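Same chain as my last thread, 204 residues:
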Amino acid sequence: MIVIVDYGMGNLGSVLKSLRYLNLEVKISESKLDIEIASKIILPGVGHFSRAMKKLKDLDFFDVLNKRVLEDKVPVLGICLGMQLFAKSSEEGRSKGLGWIDSTISKFSIKDTLRWKVPHIGWNSISIKKNNFLLDNIVEGELFYFVHSFHMICKDLNDILSTTNYSYNFVSLVQKDNIYGAQFHPEKSHKQGLQLIQNFVLNT
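reply #2:
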């Protein structure tokens, strides 16, 4: 069973629809018990970093997620804010992140605000930095849909699968062991987004 974690800050419906389109067994859940038996975990997210971390802790998800991901090595895919929560910290509030990826989250620092608006909204291409099955049948320069004001800065460059340019290059895909993250929204990125989701589900 694939579990989409419902902590009150995710674009859950679109993610669920994408997985069901691929005929996969999936459920949205706010239950620790479901996380404890999940074969794969998807952590979506839209909104504020610190509020999201507070919700994870208030729902008592923090420890079970750490156990399942770090100890049991269950594959996890973070989407947008969900990926950012993998970091150690963020400029968006004072809360510590999950700390699964050695990274921090920073707001876009853009001088030409007439040309480059924040938040970054719309279709943009990825530049592949590392071969990984997550990118099977996805070509260099493929377009994905983004909506975000903050981005991840990785201390270990080996964790970066792709970058995207928006005034400057930022991290758009990460992977470390069983941990995968997409800054863009694959569930809103048409066939290439479905391909990425399928790659995660079928190959992890």
